[in-house]
Design goal:
Layout (H helix, E strand, L loop, with lengths): L18 H14 L3 H15 L5 E5 L5 H9 L6 E6 L2 H11 L6 E5 L10 E7 L7 H14 E12 L5 H17 L4 H11 L8 H11 L3 E8 L2 E7 L1
Parallel strand pairs: 1-2, 1-4, 2-3, 4-5
Antiparallel strand pairs: 5-7, 6-7
Length: 237
């Protein structure tokens, strides 16, 4: 379904992952997130490289299941469990529907990812998820993921980022605006969504991400992809 949530003035003051968002989420991310498809391809490549037999793959903040699908379709290992977790009932409902008859080794759970114990994991994904976690709680989440990863296991993060340099931030913000306009959003829609996400989606710099991963214990940390103000990080235990 095409995203028209913010095409008219309405009473939406805060962005919520409700049924209205779940219904259009797939279209929303494709048209507003530069590099989203490349991120899914990266997940597919990573599960082939870092996944191991008899281990778990975690999709934390699974939304409608695109990352889980990439894990499942590209998995070349045996006896793996894909565990998709999201705290939105509507998102998990849509996730189950999207993955039905496509992946047979998946569990879709409605829960807070901060309450989940990561165990026997070789691949863990945070795809546009960490930015919605309270900043003061992000280190603890990364620490827990690190503890639950097996040796040589990988954490894949894809996030919107910001820049300390004001001129660079303005340049990239303008290009991101142009990206969304080119994908059919109006300035009204873009402005309304920005207001709805204010104080809900809170970004970090690349340096902050890398420092947090390093503090958790990851030794091999790479910013492997960036398109405008979105970046992917690979962290290997």
């Amino acid at each position: 379904m095409r995203d028209k949530l913010f095409s008219k003035k309405n009473n939406l003051t805060n962005f919520k992952f409700n049924k209205s968002v779940a219904d259009v989420f797939d279209d929303m991310v494709k048209r507003s997130v530069p590099g989203y498809q490349s991120m899914l391809e990266l997940i597919g490549l990573s599960v082939r490289e870092y996944g191991k037999d008899n281990t778990n793959y975690f999709d934390l903040g699974a939304s409608t299941g695109a990352s889980s699908l990439a894990l499942g379709l590209n998995n070349i290992h045996i006896n793996n469990n894909i565990i998709a977790i999201d705290n939105s009932k509507e998102m998990t409902k849509k996730c189950k529907k999207n993955l039905q008859n496509k992946i047979d080794n998946i569990s879709v759970i409605c829960a807070d990812i901060q309450d989940i114990k990561i165990t026997n994991a070789t691949v863990t994904v945070l795809n546009l998820t960490l930015q919605f976690i309270e900043p003061s709680k992000r280190q603890k989440l990364i620490d827990n993921i690190y503890k639950g990863l097996n040796s040589k296991g990988v954490l894949i993060i894809f996030e919107k980022i910001h820049f300390d340099n004001k001129i660079k931030q303005e340049q990239i913000t303008k290009l991101h605006l142009d990206f969304k306009l080119a994908n059919g959003y109006s300035k009204l829609e873009i402005g309304a969504k920005r207001k709805a996400l204010e104080n809900i989606l809170i970004t970090d710099t690349k340096k902050t991400h890398c420092n947090r991963l390093k503090k958790a214990g990851f030794k091999n940390i790479t910013c492997c992809f960036q398109y405008l103000n979105f970046a992917s990080f690979l962290a290997v235990k």
